[in-house]
Specification:
The chain is an all-alpha fold. It has helices at residues 15-23, 25-37, 47-69, 86-94, 97-120, 127-142, 144-161, 168-185. Helix 3 runs antiparallel to helix 4 and helix 5 (97-120) packs antiparallel against helix 6.
């Protein structure tokens, strides 16, 4: 999930700062949002931003608002400090970081498929798959959730194209597509690691 990057909010007129800014996921999502704003609407592209907004809103409610307005829970041990309000504990279970980031990662793959199909059917610009493909490539290198989602999607499609009864040419075409994508993206379809369950502020 895009995280605060306070070291970037003081612009510096040098190439090093510009490189750090471009590699920051907050900047990447901002640039992508500007691209969507200036392009023909693709409704599904709003989902990652909606999930980010909802997650941050629920986290703020749980950590800041509820302790101010709701009575605390009983101490975990005798004489210990009070625990967070019971509702806050339930909200923490709902607003699960790993679950939210996994949903975003799979959604971003669906968006990529959507803009490819949209370019073929002239529902969005031909530039959209190129811009979004580069964005997704960058997410692959920065987010373990994206790597995991791409590996799962690759495994599913590979399984479908190699099922009995499927013409061999389908599997051959898919393998060529995998090869082209892997060459362009530096091997994005190689088996990735799984997401770190203890991932913190950044989507890694």
């Amino acid at each position: 999930m895009p995280s605060s990057a306070t070291n970037l909010w003081t612009p510096q007129p040098n190439l090093a700062w510009a490189k750090r800014a471009i590699l920051d996921e907050n900047v990447q999502y901002f640039i992508l949002a500007f691209f969507w704003f200036t392009s023909k609407p693709v409704t599904i592209a709003l989902l990652p931003y909606a999930i980010f907004s909802l997650f941050h809103a629920l986290t703020f409610a749980r950590t800041t608002l509820m302790p101010q307005f709701l009575p605390p829970g009983p101490p975990a041990t005798a004489g210990g400090p009070p625990t967070p309000p019971p509702l806050a504990k339930k909200l923490q279970t709902i607003a699960n970081y790993d679950r939210a980031m996994s949903v975003v990662a799979y959604t971003e793959i669906l968006i990529f498929v959507r803009v490819i199909l949209g370019a073929i059917t002239f529902q969005n610009s031909l530039l959209s798959p190129l811009i979004y493909g580069h964005f997704l490539r960058q997410r692959y290198y920065q987010s373990a959730f994206t790597r995991h989602a791409l590996a799962q999607a690759d495994a599913q499609v590979t399984g479908l194209t190699t099922r009995p009864g499927v013409p061999p040419v389908v599997g051959q075409v898919w393998q060529k597509v995998r090869g082209l994508v892997g060459t362009w993206a530096g091997g994005v379809l190689q088996a990735p690691g799984t997401p770190n369950a203890n991932a913190g502020a950044a989507r890694r």
